[in-house]
Amino acid sequence: MSKLIPPSPDAETYAKNAASSPDDPKLFAKDDPFALFGEWLEEAKKKEPNEANAMALATADEHGAPDVRMVLLKDVSGDGFVFYSNAESRKGQQLAANAQAALCFHWKSLRRQVRVSGRVNEASAEEADAYFATRAKDSQIGAWASDQSRPMEGRFELETRIAKAAARYGLGKTPRPPHWKGWRIVPTRIEFWRDRPFRLHDRLEFSREGPGKPWTTRRLYP
């Protein structure tokens, strides 16, 4: 095995990890996955050193080829999980071709993970406008300057585009670019996972047939 890969934990390490994450019979007590997610996210915000709302977003193109990257959760409610990006980026084009996606939150400090999958709908223009208005000025200008996911000659080309966008939108309110949008993942499956000793993890899955349908739960083997 490569020396770059950490070895599997030994019994002493497992015992130490278990002591730092004691069994909690109430951990999976919620019957609403969004309420449970909200509790876990609040705990993660207190423990994670950086961006507890970071999540891996997996999409697929029109041929079914998968792709994944990290994005930031910007809103969550019973309607779904919302993020924003450039609609002309690779992820935007993939969502236009195949409006399905999956998310994975991994909170290492808590030894917990949440997986989400479902259909994807565009957030309303009003939602996108409201969130864009809260972004830092430089981030707003960057959204105008960057042709996200497309080739560029070098850093100077990007800096030139930023300077031009700043000259145009540096004063006053910066409007939201038409290509800058939000998406809402409306889940049909949400799985909560937490680490347990010797890979005997706890897994609880919520699933439903579609939006507005009742959730069913089941425990999964680790």
- Extended strand count: 9
Percent of residues in β-strands: 25-35%
Reported for the largest beta sheet, the result is: 9 strands, antiparallel
Going by CATH, the homologous superfamily would be Electron Transport, Fmn-binding Protein, Chain A
Q: Shape, please? A: globular
> What name is given to the CATH topology?
Pnp Oxidase, Chain A
Question: What is the ordering of alpha helices and beta strands?
Answer: HHEEEEHEEHHHEEE
Number of contiguous helices: 6
Summarize the structure.
By secondary structure, the protein is an alpha+beta fold. It is 30% helix and 31% strand.
Keyword list:
single chain, 222 residues, alpha+beta, Pnp Oxidase, Chain A, nine-stranded antiparallel β-sheet, 9 strands, globular
Explain what the structure shows.
With 222 residues, the chain is α+β, with helices and mostly antiparallel strands. It has a single domain, classed as Roll (Pnp Oxidase, Chain A), CATH 2.30.110.10. Helix content is 30%, strand content 31%. It has 6 helices and 9 strands. The protein has helices spanning 11-20, 33-47, 90-97, 125-134, 137-145, 155-169, and strands spanning 54-60, 66-72, 75-77, 80-86, 100-107, 112-122, 180-194, 202-207, 216-219. Strands 1, 2, 3, 4, 5, 6, 7, 8 and 9 form a 9-stranded antiparallel beta sheet that branches. Helix 5 packs across helix 6 (155-169). The chain is globular and about 60 Å long. The two termini are 24 Å apart. 20% of the residues are buried. The mean pLDDT is 91.
Task: Describe how the helices and strands are arranged.
Layout: H1 11-20, H2 33-47, E1 54-60, E2 66-72, E3 75-77, E4 80-86, H3 90-97, E5 100-107, E6 112-122, H4 125-134, H5 137-145, H6 155-169, E7 180-194, E8 202-207, E9 216-219
Antiparallel strand pairs: 1-2, 1-5, 3-4, 4-7, 5-6, 6-7, 7-8, 8-9
